[in-house]
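$ ./design --mode recover --in tokens.txt
reading tokens...
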């Protein structure tokens, strides 16, 4: 941390948020940080808001690997990505001064849609039917045709995304020390014609998941990248894999992933 002093704050620019954050700007300058207006000049990027703002901060600044990301919560409670509360500046000072911070590395998934570009997700990628009709997809693991899915959609989650949307559909919570992705179904049909595994499954970092959309009049699905929608017409093939890219985040030594899971859900 001592060599990382260029700080960029990511947050909404409305009057209410500017009033909330003014003390943070003053605090950062008092403790020797250089505040920058351009995130490309920063080596620490700090989101202020909640987990949604953290995901947006990572996305809008390009999933940078050469800087640290940190999250400050304004919600009254800590999130999965936010280690600090905005009203607890003393803890921020103490943690920085006493070297109570560690760096953790979160895996990222890469999504390619019909060869039209590469997109990254820190939480999850989801594909869902956008009309009142089931979505049909051939599911491939590497070159193996694994199953033909028919239902509302599929979620592909990173380990850190396993506690969010993925968990709500009975997926597993995965340790982020594992570089993998989890595939979970949304309301799949299982009958004499269509048969799926019926449970979430986990793919290692060397695997590639391919989803081929069967063209039955439902070839314009809704796709989500973390908390942002992706609009591409006439989708045919989606390839998803874990990348070598790692997002480095600031972590308090006494606030591990599993402590966060316990605090959030138990």
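writing sequence...
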């Amino acid at each position: 941390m001592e060599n990382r002093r260029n700080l960029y704050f990511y947050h909404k620019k409305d009057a209410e948020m500017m009033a909330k954050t003014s003390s943070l700007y003053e605090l950062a300058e008092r403790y020797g940080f250089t505040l920058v207006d351009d995130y490309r000049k920063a080596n620490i990027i700090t989101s202020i808001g909640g987990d949604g703002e953290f995901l947006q901060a990572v996305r809008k600044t390009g999933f940078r690997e050469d800087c640290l990301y940190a999250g400050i919560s304004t919600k009254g409670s800590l999130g999965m990505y936010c280690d600090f509360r905005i009203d607890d500046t003393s803890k921020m000072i103490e943690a920085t001064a006493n070297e109570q911070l560690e760096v953790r590395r979160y895996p990222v998934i890469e999504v390619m849609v019909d060869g039209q570009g590469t997109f990254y997700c820190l939480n999850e990628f989801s594909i869902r039917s956008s009309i009142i009709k089931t979505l049909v997809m051939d599911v491939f693991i590497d070159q193996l045709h694994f199953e033909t899915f028919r239902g509302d959609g599929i979620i592909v989650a990173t380990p850190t995304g396993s506690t969010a949307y993925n968990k709500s559909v009975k997926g597993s919570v995965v340790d982020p020390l594992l570089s993998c992705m989890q595939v979970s179904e949304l309301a799949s049909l299982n009958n004499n014609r269509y048969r799926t595994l019926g449970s979430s499954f986990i793919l290692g970092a060397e695997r590639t998941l391919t989803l081929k959309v069967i063209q039955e009049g439902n070839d314009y699905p809704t796709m989500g990248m973390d908390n942002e929608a992706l609009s591409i017409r006439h989708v045919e093939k989606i390839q998803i894999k874990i990348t070598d890219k790692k997002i480095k985040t600031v972590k308090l030594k006494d606030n591990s992933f599993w402590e966060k899971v316990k605090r959030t859900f138990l």
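exit 0
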